[in-house]
Amino acid sequence: MATTDFDIVVIGGGSGGLVVAAGGATLGAKVALVENNKLGGDCLWTGCVPSKTLIKSARVAYLMRNADRFALTPHDPTPTLPRVMERVASVIASIEPNDSAERFRALGVDVIFGDGRFIDPESFEVDGRRLRARTFAIATGSRPAIPSIPGVESVPYLTSETIFNLREAVPHLIVVGSGPIGSEMAQAFRRLGSNVTVVDIAPAILPREDPDLAAIVFRQLQSEGVDYRLSASIAKIERTPLGIRLLLREAGGAVQPVDATHLLLAAGRKANVESLRLDAAGVRVSDGRIALENGLTTTNPRIYVVGDAAGGHQFTHLAEHHAGIVLRHAIFRLKWTRPSAVVPRCTFTDPEFARVGLSETEAKNSGVDHRVYTFPLADIDRARTEGETDGMAKVVTSPRGRLLGAAIVAPHAGELIAEYALAIAHRMGAGHISASIHAYPTFAQISRRVADMRQKEALTPRTKMWIKRLFGLRGA
Ligand SMILES: Cc1cc2nc3c(=O)[nH]c(=O)nc-3n(C[C@H](O)[C@H](O)[C@H](O)COP(=O)(O)OP(=O)(O)OC[C@H]3O[C@@H](n4cnc5c(N)ncnc54)[C@H](O)[C@@H]3O)c2cc1C
Fold first, then answer.
1. pLDDT per residue as tens digits for the range 394-453
2. Which of 20, 33, 42, 100 to mutate to test the pocket of ligand 1 (most atoms within 8 A of CB)?
3. More exposed terminus of the chain, fewer Cβ within 10 Å: N or C?
């Protein structure tokens, strides 16, 4: 078997792997990139790009149907899913060249397609070649976890890997899972004309978020007609002549059937690490997760894990952040750099739900001394002009006002949260946000107004009395 020596071998050509490969080659490293399917990964083919494209079409349909809210004649666009999915495919196709093998080969990366495995702690075998390297980056991503529900294997089901291939009408979709992917898809399909039932064993949607904020998204989806079955476990799934039947055991113990034409499983994800023969490389795996030693390093110091395969938060921007750290370790030997804990995230429902840092619930559970301030979206003038007033901003601070976390439920919350991500990463306080000018009238005003709540609280009656005395003021 031919052996080639590389500086970096990247396994998996998605969000994280592509950044390691492109960055490494650009900085002068000899890089191989191994991919067992198509370059681009989940984000391009089955994740961020198709879901956000679908969500946009769904929002346009929703606005057209509800145009009377804006003093216009409403119109039912009766969206046809196959056409919308063709648009999804065309947006993917427009982005795909950025991730193509040609582009990476032109950068000098040795792109190899195939399924490979480690054969010893410093070599990976693929396509009849032995790739030896100083640094390996495992960037194989994750896949939908299939919950072990009786009957699930006997029915046709969709996952995020197949739903965007649909070219047929979806009269009634059951979504199992009310996390970010389940909530985004539930709202999008409802707006595109499907009946949608969401089933979750949890008592509330977006279970990792503060309940008061998640409730805003819940109310919106419910008002649009999404049927929720929460605190419900699935006793059995059966096939019926028209599609699927779920037997749901609801909170009181009664078993209720729910019939639908299609079923989407969106109940968790699993890292893709099983086929790599990690044992041959001395990489410890426990419970399907690679054991991490020091940020992103495995028990073999030359092998790193980036992105979803690392088993933590699963976001494209986090995979890219990991990639930057691996490059610093591999090329500049800056071994002390570690992944940042300040990771913004956004669920692209309407309204969007974005957060960075600690939630109020996490702050309470961790016992950290903290304060919480909120501000309603309805008091932001731009929200009034846009007719989108359901939402809220919340900040969690230390007792002295240092920002620990922020969450925003509002249109464009994913954009708005960037300000707080910067502020928290640089250990700023609510006062810094309050003191910076925010353009009027923008949704971003909510970021300042919620920070102002902390500043207002700092003005105690005693402080006010001193100000009045010092400056000779005559007010109450
Ligand atoms: C429906 C959905 C919506 C999402 N929306 C968002 C969003 O809005 N924002 C966001 O930040 N994140 C979103 N995500 C998550 C995001 O897609 C992932 O976090 C991101 O793609 C992870 O990047 P990665 O490099 O770890 O893995 P991937 O990008 O998935 O890349 C992994 C690559 O490895 C390849 N591979 C797998 N096994 C092997 C093997 N044995 N050998 C060689 N190659 C292999 C795969 O084919 C793939 O190309 C979404 C995910 C889903 C499913």
1. 999 999 999 999 999 999 999 999 999 999 999 999 999 999 999 999 999 999 999 999
2. 42
3. C
